[in-house]
């Protein structure tokens, strides 16, 4: 971001700061700006509701799913409810869920779950926000169903042959979240400290939870 | 074998998975907000959007990326159902590109 | 609500309906055999929903578990590895018990 950026003219109305103002306008952005202007002029949307929605979406981050994981690690009854119905378990923690259904997948020493959407970019956005670049890449979408062990090795996860790898193609109406294994040496940690050990990729099955430093 | 959708790439040979984090751009965040609002206001389903994306040519799909596909798929739907006039949108886009400025929107 | 079409654990074959247009059954699982992992609920058929809401009939969705070796004969992983995918009922047929091919 530029340090000394300033507009050469005054705005008569406040609007959110565009942190990409120093980047050249691309054709895609121009097409979007044209669309947005037309939708506003036609009275279909207004700028305030767009901004309000951006702010709602910003609350969707991997921390939401990490909170569920931490609770499941410390509370077996919650974990049982999460495994039975992850959507209800999210709502229980006041996480708003827009997906029709959420399924939690528990990783154990014997079973490692990993999530992919081969047909598009289905992702549990209420719990994790927008998907990372690797998840939406055509290479991840193509290869994860065909050679998951190799893909996971590229992510630094080498799993023993005895561990079953189970790939979940998130191809239709359900959405998934991985419940990673609780790391050793985390006894007695608070829920918020535990949640901090759960990186985004562990919630997709592409990483392990971190061990406390 | 039946026709394979351009988006149906599971199992196809592919190269390295990009591992660099990519920051979501300002306009991309706005796009998501806009399409979230439109899908409820205009009652457009996820499958309509998916179908619109699948109507891209293989070549178009091949070089597209997530937010470009989202925008183009939605534009296709909005042109199709008459919400947005395609010619007026093209003219407006050209005008914005020519000005090189985001400020008049 | 109508009865659930397949019980958990039932062997099924994912068929290739050869249907043009928007479908959610990817090519790589067509013709393959697996077992029902769970019933995933009832949804408006996406093959119709893709052309406007309210056009489709309600269809049941199932989670099907397949052995990777049954999907890819030359699968480069372990025997026990599996894959799960969501398939709507009209793409599924009961499969007699026996070795998956």
Automatic annotation (TrEMBL), chain A:
- Basic and acidic residues compositional bias, start-end: 1-18
Top-rank taxon, per record: Bacteria
Q: Which UniProt keywords apply?
A: Metal-binding
Output the SUPFAM superfamilies linked to this UniProt entry.
Nitrile hydratase alpha chain (SSF56209)
**UniProt-listed Gene3D superfamilies:** Nitrile hydratase alpha /Thiocyanate hydrolase gamma
Region named Disordered? 1-22
Q: Which residues form the Nitrile hydratase alpha/Thiocyanate hydrolase gamma domain?
A: 27-207
Name of the protein: Nitrile hydratase subunit alpha
From TrEMBL, chain C:
Q: Which residues form the Nitrile hydratase beta subunit domain?
A: 4-93
Q: Which InterPro entries match?
A: CN_hydtase_beta_dom_C, Elect_transpt_acc-like_dom_sf
| Superkingdom assignment | Bacteria
Query: Where exactly are the transmembrane stretches of this chain?
Result: none
| Protein name in UniProt | Nitrile hydratase subunit beta
Supply the source organism for this entry: Arenibacterium halophilum
């Amino acid at each position: 971001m530029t340090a000394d950026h300033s507009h050469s003219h005054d705005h008569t109305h406040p609007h959110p700061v565009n942190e990409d103002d120093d980047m050249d306008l691309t054709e895609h952005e121009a097409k979007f700006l044209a669309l947005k202007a037309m939708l506003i002029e036609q009275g279909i949307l207004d700028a305030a509701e767009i901004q309000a929605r951006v702010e709602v979406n910003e609350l969707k981050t991997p921390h939401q799913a990490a909170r569920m994981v931490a609770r499941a690690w410390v509370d077996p009854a919650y974990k049982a409810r999460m495994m039975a119905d992850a959507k209800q378990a999210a709502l229980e923690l006041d996480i708003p869920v827009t997906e029709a259904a959420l399924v939690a997948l528990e990783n154990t020493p014997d079973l490692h779950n990993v999530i992919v959407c081969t047909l598009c970019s289905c992702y549990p956005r209420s719990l994790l926000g927008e998907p990372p670049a690797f998840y939406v890449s055509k290479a991840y979408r193509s290869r994860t169903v065909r050679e998951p062990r190799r893909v996971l090795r590229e992510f630094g996860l080498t799993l023993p042959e005895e561990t079953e790898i189970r790939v979940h193609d998130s191809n239709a109406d359900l959405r998934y979240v991985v419940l990673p294994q609780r790391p050793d040496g985390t006894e007695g940690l608070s829920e918020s400290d535990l949640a901090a050990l759960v990186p985004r990729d562990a919630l997709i099955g592409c990483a392990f939870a971190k061990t406390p430093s | 074998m039946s026709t394979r959708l351009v988006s149906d790439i599971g199992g196809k040979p592919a190269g390295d998975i990009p591992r660099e984090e990519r920051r979501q751009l300002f306009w991309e965040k706005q796009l998501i907000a806009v399409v979230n609002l439109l899908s409820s206001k205009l009652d457009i389903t996820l499958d309509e959007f998916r179908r619109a994306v699948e109507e891209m040519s293989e070549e178009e799909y091949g070089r597209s990326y997530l937010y470009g596909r989202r925008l183009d798929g939605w534009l296709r739907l909005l042109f199709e159902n008459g919400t947005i006039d395609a010619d007026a949108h093209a003219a407006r886009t050209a005008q914005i590109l020519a000005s090189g400025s985001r400020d008049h929107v | 609500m109508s009865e659930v079409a397949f019980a958990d654990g039932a062997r099924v074959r994912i068929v290739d309906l050869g249907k043009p247009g928007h479908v959610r059954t990817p090519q790589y699982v067509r013709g393959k055999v697996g077992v029902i992992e769970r019933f995933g609920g009832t949804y408006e058929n996406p093959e119709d929903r893709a052309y406007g809401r309210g056009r489709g009939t309600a269809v049941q969705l199932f989670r099907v578990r397949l052995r990777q070796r049954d999907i890819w004969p030359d699968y480069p992983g372990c025997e026990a590895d599996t894959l799960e995918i969501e398939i709507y009922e009209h793409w599924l047929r009961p499969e007699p018990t026996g070795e998956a091919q």
